[in-house]
């Protein structure tokens, strides 16, 4: 391992045992930081590899933890094989919440890390040595879902001065702490802002939309097993979280109509149809695929709104 891409940045790896989630979040003045720094596998762990980055720490660190190594043992193995370890900054966390972090002696200042119960915050080439401490404090003092706590940590790092060079890209990756039948499953958040003048502002916007779609997806799963009342609750919440996305409102209206609450569905359908007439065509096609069961006159009435 001897790669020398200067992906100087700040990041956090963390776990929420109550929700069974673990994740990694990052911001940098580097294009597409999310394609290089954050790595994760459900039921195994998460990794942030940065500074003069060697991306191999990600997949190799996960592979070692999957074989039973602790994060510290996995990190020690990889560092021992790396002639450029003095310019690396790496953090690892496993599904048990154990952490390990390394800030090489030749990482560009300001550089450092701080670890606590179930998290590690690390940064290099920062405008201030307050950045990683501010990130740690924000995470420890935050509440709510893990993705939003990671977001708060990044925002605290930015408020403390952030990257010396400014900002360009950001990412959040959150996975389940439970093993899955395939390595690509168990991801609840996988968001990247590749290039943006205010990447954290954009990332927070995407995080809110992601939350809405998690509820919409849950609604789809409930529809598949015939639990329409619960599905409606999920669709309704999704629509409220992202009212600007007409499709979420469309499926809320469909669920209302399916429950026999046609009059309640009409104003929602009306708003959706005014934004895009093609939604009428989709609505008229749903009965043939078993996705809506209303009498033909009712369907005609709805598509005529």
Describe the structure.
The chain has 305 residues and is an alpha+beta fold. It folds into two domains: 5-197, Aminohydrolase, N-terminal nucleophile (Ntn) domain (Glutamine Phosphoribosylpyrophosphate, subunit 1, domain 1, 4-Layer Sandwich); 213-303, Alpha Horseshoe (Serine Threonine Protein Phosphatase 5, Tetratricopeptide repeat), CATH 1.25.40. Helix content is 42%, strand content 23%. It contains ten helices and eleven strands. A six-stranded antiparallel β-sheet has the order 8-9-2-3-10-11, covered by helices on one side. Strands 1, 4, 5, 6 and 7 form a five-stranded antiparallel β-sheet that branches. Helix 6 packs antiparallel against helix 7 (246-258) and helix 9 packs antiparallel against helix 10. The longest helix has 26 residues, at 199-224. 47% of the residues are buried. The mean pLDDT is 95.
Topology:
Elements: E1 5-7, E2 9-16, E3 21-28, E4 38-41, E5 45-53, H1 57-66, H2 71-80, E6 88-94, E7 99-103, E8 112-116, E9 119-123, H3 131-141, H4 146-159, E10 169-176, E11 187-193, H5 199-224, H6 228-241, H7 246-258, H8 262-275, H9 278-285, H10 296-303
Antiparallel strand pairs: 1-5, 2-3, 2-9, 3-10, 4-5, 5-6, 6-7, 8-9, 10-11
Helix pairs in contact: 1-2, 3-4, 4-5, 5-6, 6-7, 7-8, 9-10
């Amino acid at each position: 391992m001897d790669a020398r891409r200067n992906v100087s940045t700040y990041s956090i790896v963390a776990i929420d045992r109550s929700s069974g989630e673990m994740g990694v979040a990052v911001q940098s003045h580097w294009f597409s930081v999310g394609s290089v720094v954050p790595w994760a596998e459900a039921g195994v762990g998460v990794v942030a590899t940065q500074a003069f980055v060697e991306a191999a720490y990600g997949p190799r660190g996960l592979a070692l933890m999957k074989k039973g190594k602790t994060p510290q043992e996995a990190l020690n193995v990889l560092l021992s094989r790396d002639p450029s370890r003095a310019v690396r900054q790496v953090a690892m966390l496993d599904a048990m919440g154990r952490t390990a972090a390394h800030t090489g002696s030749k990482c560009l200042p300001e550089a450092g890390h701080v670890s606590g119960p179930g998290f590690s915050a690390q940064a290099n080439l920062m405008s201030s040595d307050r950045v990683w401490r501010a990130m740690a404090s924000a995470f420890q003092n935050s509440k709510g879902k893990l993705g939003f706590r990671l977001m708060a940590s990044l925002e605290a790092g930015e408020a403390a001065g952030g990257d010396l060079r400014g900002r360009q890209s950001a990412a959040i990756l959150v996975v389940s702490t439970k093993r899955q039948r395939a390595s690509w499953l168990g991801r609840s958040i996988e968001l990247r802002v590749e290039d943006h003048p205010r990447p954290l502002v954009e990332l927070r916007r995407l995080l809110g939309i992601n939350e809405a779609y998690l509820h919409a997806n849950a609604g789809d799963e409930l529809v598949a097993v015939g639990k329409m009342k619960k599905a409606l609750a999920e669709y309704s919440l999704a629509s409220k979280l992202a009212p600007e996305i007409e499709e979420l409102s469309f499926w809320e209206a469909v669920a209302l109509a399916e429950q026999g609450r046609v009059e309640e569905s009409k104003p929602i359908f009306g708003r959706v149809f005014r934004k895009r007439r093609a939604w009428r065509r989709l609505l008229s096609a749903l009965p043939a695929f078993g996705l809506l069961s209303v009498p033909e006159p009712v369907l005609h009435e709805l598509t005529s709104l």
